[in-house]
Task: inverse folding
């Protein structure tokens, strides 16, 4: 934590701090900040055929993808290091990519790589046998009844537990089986499954597909919705092995099939216990033949990316074209890059950091994070709605935040991953088996606070409540989010708000239930928690009525997006306070005016630039139902509307599109 703000480059560099050519001067910032800053870009933007949306994030991801492609192709051509010495990382990367790009060999094999597993599915003679087979297949990457992995114990955060989450559905979530607005999609889904099973030479594929849809509909009735699943208290359910088997007796067959030793399930965490009870019921009610068809679908869908073109195209036709509205299958090299990253992502990450992440970026980011932490400290200390006891505990948690910037201090060793340039399916199964084994090893080893949950080449950031840490991979530390040559106002409005957003997750509706050690513990007084919930309820009401232009009649779910909205609101508000600390630290009352914009206006322009985005209607509808993030235009405008600083910067008045009466504005942190 820094008592004196660390300054970052200012002044002359600011001339390029906002993209003037992207603005629409016919739209006033007082009416629509998002379209004022981005309107010129929005008017000419074209969504690439292989994407459902496009904007600042996707542009950065394209840059990262191109950089990774260059790394992979060089590794394929030159598997030794620059000094000529053997480099296992490069050799692995090159061989894995070669196996994916050998399209002729993949086409020649057709469905042969899954034929034996498919035969095993249809040879099962009991539900117990099928459950056991599901366990074996899940270990090699086939989706099943549960999402399974190691996770920190919310009650004892220095240990990892085997954790079970609901799964088993082919549509985006349970609401797609329940809500009338998705009813038409059921027929499309059934037709897709019929075509997929026909490709796998399953007899009477259309009837089999209908059975799978019926089975999944029964399973979906026991799924928690996404809002309930966000409840950290409700989803923390410690069970002994005996309690787990009593709740869901069939799970023993799955554990045996997956080869999981009893020590790993002596105690487990089950996020949705009622789902396991419901699954047991559906296992008893649905005929074995329906379960065989269901598992066949899991197998074919999981391996479709690695099979011949007919399987790839069928998966694309439903999951990309139908659900996301995309018009083109991603080029093979893009899919190959994604495969190699999924298999050995940190091998690539090491090489990416060596090429693309200057150490000075890390130093500058450390200063920015310190300034944001200090701004949060000052803001929390003066909160008018929170009592002194809770303020002290919030400050204690803030002081325990850990920050990761750029890349890990130690890297994953992928030596066990098979990398045969002529056997894609074996490579994919080996990578999945390695990942599964790593999860179990985490239970043996306990919590390792040096591990990362994203790769350096990932354009994103995260907060982990069980570790109380924030992480910023190298790839997001690029324009328009971060530029060490950019002026302070623009950097604070962009990457500063991202930093503030991630810190803010430590104090959102979920993160606020964990203390500074990552333990799920109530550190609030009842009165302060009630006041917090009053404020968040007002935020929910604001977002519940927001309707994206792309999808008339479809609105944001304010409860589903609450955590991200709190993060956005706190992130931008605290980033602004940090920026003002920076200005004061330079002995100024106001930053200079550049390109006709004050420092405060450049701050908000940079924020709006980050959310430059266009989406296909199909993609937007799916995200409104499943994504905890609000659409980009609202992440920009609705957050700004709630900040007094925005209204002061632009002199908004009643009647302006961005006007929100002071008494209606929500300020939490």
Result:
């Amino acid at each position: 934590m820094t008592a004196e703000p660390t300054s970052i480059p200012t002044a002359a560099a600011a001339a390029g701090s906002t993209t003037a050519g992207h603005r629409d001067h016919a739209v006033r910032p007082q009416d629509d900040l998002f379209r004022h800053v981005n309107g010129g870009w929005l008017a000419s933007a074209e969504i690439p055929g292989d994407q459902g949306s496009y904007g600042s994030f996707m542009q950065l991801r394209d840059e990262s993808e191109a950089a990774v492609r260059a790394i992979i192709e060089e590794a394929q051509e030159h598997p030794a290091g620059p000094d000529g010495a053997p480099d296992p990382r490069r050799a692995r990367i090159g061989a894995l990519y070669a196996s994916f790009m050998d399209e002729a060999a993949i086409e020649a094999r057709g469905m042969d790589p899954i034929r034996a597993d498919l035969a095993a599915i249809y040879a099962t003679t009991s539900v117990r046998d099928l459950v056991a087979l599901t366990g074996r297949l899940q270990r090699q990457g086939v989706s099943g009844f549960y999402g399974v992995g190691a996770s920190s114990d919310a009650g004892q955060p220095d240990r990892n537990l085997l954790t079970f989450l609901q799964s088993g559905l082919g549509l985006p979530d349970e609401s797609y089986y329940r809500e009338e607005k998705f009813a038409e999609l059921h027929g499309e889904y059934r037709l897709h499954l019929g075509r997929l099973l026909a490709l796998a030479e399953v007899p009477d594929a259309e009837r089999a597909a209908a059975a799978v849809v019926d089975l999944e509909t029964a399973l979906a009735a026991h799924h928690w919705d996404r809002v309930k699943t966000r409840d950290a208290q409700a989803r923390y359910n410690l069970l002994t092995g005996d309690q787990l088997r009593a709740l869901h007796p069939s799970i023993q067959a799955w554990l045996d099939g997956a080869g999981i030793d009893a020590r790993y399930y002596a105690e487990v965490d089950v996020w949705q216990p009622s789902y396991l009870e419901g699954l047991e019921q559906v296992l008893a009610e649905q005929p074995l033949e329906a379960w065989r068809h269901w598992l066949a679908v899991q197998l074919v869908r999981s391996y479709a990316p690695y099979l011949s073109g007919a399987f790839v195209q069928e998966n694309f036709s439903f999951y990309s074209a139908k659900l996301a509205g995309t018009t083109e299958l991603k080029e093979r090299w893009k899919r190959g890059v994604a495969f190699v990253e999924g298999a050995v992502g940190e091998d690539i990450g090491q090489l990416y950091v060596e090429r693309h992440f200057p150490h000075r970026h890390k130093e500058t980011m450390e200063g920015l994070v310190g300034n944001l932490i200090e701004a949060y400290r000052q803001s929390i200390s003066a909160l008018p709605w929170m009592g002194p006891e809770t303020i002290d505990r919030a400050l204690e948690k803030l002081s325990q935040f850990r920050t990761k910037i750029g890349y890990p201090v130690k890297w994953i060793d992928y030596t066990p991953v098979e990398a045969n340039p002529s056997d894609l399916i074996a490579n994919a199964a080996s990578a999945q088996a390695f990942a599964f084994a790593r999860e179990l090893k985490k239970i043996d080893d306990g919590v390792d606070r040096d591990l990362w949950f994203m790769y350096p080449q990932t354009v994103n950031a995260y907060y982990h409540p069980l570790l109380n840490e924030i992480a910023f991979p190298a790839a997001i530390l690029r324009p328009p989010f971060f530029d060490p040559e950019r002026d302070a106002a623009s950097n604070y409005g962009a990457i500063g708000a991202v930093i503030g957003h991630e810190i803010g997750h430590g104090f959102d509706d979920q993160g606020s239930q964990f203390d500074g050690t990552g333990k799920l513990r109530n550190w609030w007084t009842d009165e302060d928690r009630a006041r917090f919930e009053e404020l968040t309820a007002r935020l929910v009401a604001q977002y519940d009525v927001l309707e994206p232009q792309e999808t008339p009649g479809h609105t944001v779910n304010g409860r589903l997006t609450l955590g991200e909205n709190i993060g956005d609101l706190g992130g931008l508000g605290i980033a602004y306070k940090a920026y003002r600390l920076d200005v004061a630290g330079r002995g100024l009352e106001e930053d200079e005016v550049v390109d006709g914009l004050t420092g405060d206006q450049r701050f908000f322009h940079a924020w709006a630039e980050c959310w430059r985005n266009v989406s296909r209607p199909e993609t937007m509808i799916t995200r409104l139902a499943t994504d905890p993030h609000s659409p980009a235009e609202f992440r920009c405008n609705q957050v700004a509307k709630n900040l007094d600083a925005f209204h002061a910067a632009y002199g908004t008045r009643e009647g302006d599109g961005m006007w929100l009466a002071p008494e209606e504005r929500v300020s939490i942190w």
Notes: Residues 1-18 have pLDDT under 50 and may be disordered. The two ends are 18 Å apart (CA to CA). The domain at 114-288 is CATH 1.10.1380.10 (Neutral endopeptidase; domain 2).
